[in-house]
Amino acid sequence: AFYFIPELLKVVDEIKSNQVTKDEYFNTLKTHPAWQGKLEELIAEYTQREQKGKLVETFLKKFESHKKKMAKAKEAWDIYEKYDIKLKQKNFIDFNDMINMVLEVFDSNEDFLKKVSSKYQYFLVDEYQDTNYSQNSIVFRLAEGANSENIFVVGDDDQIIYEFQGAKTDTLEKFLIKYPQTKVICLNENN
In this structure, is the dihedral angle defined by the CA atoms of residues 38, 41, 43 and 46, taken in order, positive or negative? Predict the structure, then answer.
């Protein structure tokens, strides 16, 4: 059982750092090709192989492995909910809760957002490639609250080291989509 704890912690972190709702989570399991789509593909292949009498052990292991993966993914949400309940019972918060609490206040209190963001003329984020969805949301909300696009980010998409905390390879691309007038300065040499 302890073998799966790091995997479960990663799932909990992904759920929190991406602010995934229960409906979104289970909808992803149903619609994403790597989850339910893959299972349906394997079921179809199972039927074909069974009809031809070619249910080889390697395929059966692959089929059972994916069924277990689906079951674990569904169980992971239950564990996430229990973890979240336990934190609340103990009046504890984790790192993602701190980030998400700020976002909740920004979303529910526009005056507070403007008060905080108006204190800053510029926003600078270093190691931008290592930010996750929630952290990016804070940066974007602060800029929106200040009615400013004075955002300077420094990042290298070849140096993502915090994927385990929700950093994604497309973070810089999403920034450029959100702010298409961005001036990109590439440093090709490091002296």
Answer: negative
Rounded to an integer, what distance in angstroms lies between the CA atom of residue 152 and that of residue 182? 9
Tens digit of each residue's pLDDT (9 = 90 or more) over 3-31 = 678 888 888 988 998 899 999 999 998 88
165, exposed or middle or buried, with CB in 10 Å at 0-12, 13-18, 19+? middle
Question: What pLDDT shows up at residue 100?
Answer: 94
pTM score > 0.70 for this model?
Answer: yes
**Residue with the two structure tokens 């290298």:** 156
pLDDT at 78: 94
Alpha helix (H) ranges present in the chain? 5-17, 22-31, 38-52, 57-89, 95-108, 110-117, 133-145, 171-178
As a whole number of angstroms, the distance between CA 131 and CA 157 comes to: 11
CB 117 within 8 A of CB 50: no
Return d(Cα 150, Cα 155) in angstroms, integer.
Answer: 16
Q: How far apart are CA 18 and CA 22, in angstroms?
A: 12
CB atoms within 10 A of CB 97: 15
